[in-house]
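User: Teach me something about this protein's shape.
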Amino acid sequence: MSLLSKIFDLTNEALSVAIWVAGPLLGGILISGLVVGILQAATHINDPVLGFVPKLVFMTIALSLFGSTLLFLITEFAETAFAMAAQVKR
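Assistant: First, the predicted structure itself:
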């Protein structure tokens, strides 16, 4: 396997891990922000803190529930990256 092929494989895996780690968290924040925005528009309450607190609460809950799984994904990728780097010959 050539060096360029290894780099492409590692890049592909890095993007995949980034999507799996950030996707659920950002998707949940997007949904909570949308719900709060609709409620703020319906009630004419334009307090910026009201939009920030639900996002913070969601992020805290999501990280406490899924943090170990996300950390496992990142750790596995790092181990793979270091193993591939060790195989590269000058």
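Now, about its shape. The first helix runs from residue 3 to 43. The chain has a mean pLDDT of 89. If you'd like, I can walk through any region in more detail.
User: That's plenty for now, thanks!
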